[in-house]
Design the sequence.
């Protein structure tokens, strides 16, 4: 008989967590790349953006990449922490 690869084992939780973190990093990197491309090839009349209403970033490739990575990283990071907390708290 072959083993069930989807069976729950102690290592499955770690592997699943690392997959989620890799997806998180890829999404944040795509947001940064999109911001960089928008700053490079976007319209010339872009206005500065405020990162969390505190830091004004100029619409340069680096500024828009930082804005995209910062907003996506914090937004998804908060959701990731909440899901992690809920899964640990209500784990049966």
Sequence:
């Amino acid at each position: 008989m072959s083993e069930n690869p989807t069976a729950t084992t102690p290592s499955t939780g770690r592997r699943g967590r690392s997959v989620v973190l890799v997806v998180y990093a890829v999404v944040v990197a795509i947001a940064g790349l999109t911001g960089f491309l928008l700053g490079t090839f976007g319209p010339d009349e872009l206005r500065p953006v405020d990162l969390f209403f505190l830091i004004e970033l100029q619409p340069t490739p680096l500024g828009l990449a930082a804005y995209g990575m910062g907003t996506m990283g914090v937004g998804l990071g908060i959701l990731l922490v909440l899901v992690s907390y809920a899964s640990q708290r209500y784990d049966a």
Summary: The first strand starts at residue 49 and ends at 51. The chain has a mean pLDDT of 84. Residues 19 and 56 are 34 Å apart (CA to CA).
